[in-house]
Design the sequence.
């Protein structure tokens, strides 16, 4: 049985009179890839931000490995849609950035060099090591953001629509790249996405989030084994799950619009 690493226990969040999250409870086990799907503005990002330590619950608690989350930490790598790379650092120095933090103090320079080279190779960025982020394509910047996050060796990956701005082919390539790294390094992940197909393809569990205030409307187990490939999209069970989840999400979109 997998160890439970993340626990949301009766978590609510209010901003003044606005209740954004309402009594949310769920777990994430070691090695899980969990996706949150639901309408825009329903509170998905607020849930992720509480696990990241960027904000705190108004009531309830978020536990990470049994301890309350009290702030950000190097054990959590965070990726956003806006890439999250440093424009004033080259590709190589972006990847090296996390290795220069205090948690890696004492790591030999040669070991850091090996890690940087590994991620330059994995992300197909070796020929661009001295390039500036502004000179990279959107897909390359997102690969760089993924490399920088993983090179620091966080225990958990938190991703908020990281592929939303990419074209369809690049997005597909990033899915397969991410799954390969996730399986090789046994990371635990939480993904926010508006794409039901993306959630099914990447995850082993999908949580459908209700219209604001956020509640876990339904938890759906994804039955497909890893590794996965694009043939999965034609599987009858994939098609059934897509239809089922889309219907649930579209109902929440309608409810969200009714709320204004």
Sequence:
């Amino acid at each position: 049985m997998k160890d439970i690493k993340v626990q949301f226990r009766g978590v609510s969040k209010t901003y003044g009179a606005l209740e954004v999250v309402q009594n949310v409870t769920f777990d994430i086990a070691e090695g899980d890839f969990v996706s949150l799907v639901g309408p825009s503005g329903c509170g998905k990002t607020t849930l992720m931000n509480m696990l990241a330590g960027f904000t705190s619950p108004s009531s309830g608690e978020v536990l990470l490995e049994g301890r309350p989350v009290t702030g950000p930490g190097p054990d959590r790598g965070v990726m956003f849609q806006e890439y999250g790379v440093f424009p004033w650092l080259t590709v190589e120095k972006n990847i090296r950035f996390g290795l220069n933090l205090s948690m890696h103090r004492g790591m030999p320079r040669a070991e850091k060099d090996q890690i940087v080279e590994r991620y330059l190779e994995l992300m197909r960025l070796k020929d661009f090591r001295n390039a500036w982020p502004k000179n990279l394509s959107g897909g390359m910047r997102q690969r760089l953001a993924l490399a920088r996050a993983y090179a620091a060796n966080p225990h958990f990956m938190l991703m908020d629509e990281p592929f939303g701005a990419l074209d369809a082919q690049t997005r597909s390539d990033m899915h397969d790249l991410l799954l390969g790294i996730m399986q090789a390094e046994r990371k635990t992940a939480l993904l926010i996405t508006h794409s039901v197909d993306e959630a099914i393809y990447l995850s082993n569990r999908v949580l459908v989030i209700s219209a604001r205030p956020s509640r876990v409307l339904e938890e759906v187990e994804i039955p497909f084994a890893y590794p996965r490939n694009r043939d999965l999209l034609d599987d009858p069970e994939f098609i059934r799950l897509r239809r089922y989840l889309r219907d649930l999400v579209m109902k929440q979109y309608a409810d969200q619009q009714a709320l204004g």
Remarks:
- The longest strand covers residues 4-15.
- The two ends are 43 Å apart (CA to CA).
- The beta strands are 4-15, 18-29, 33-37, 59-64, 67-68, 76-80, 156-160, 188-192, 205-209, 216-221.
- The chain has two domains: 1-73+156-179+188-260, 76-154.
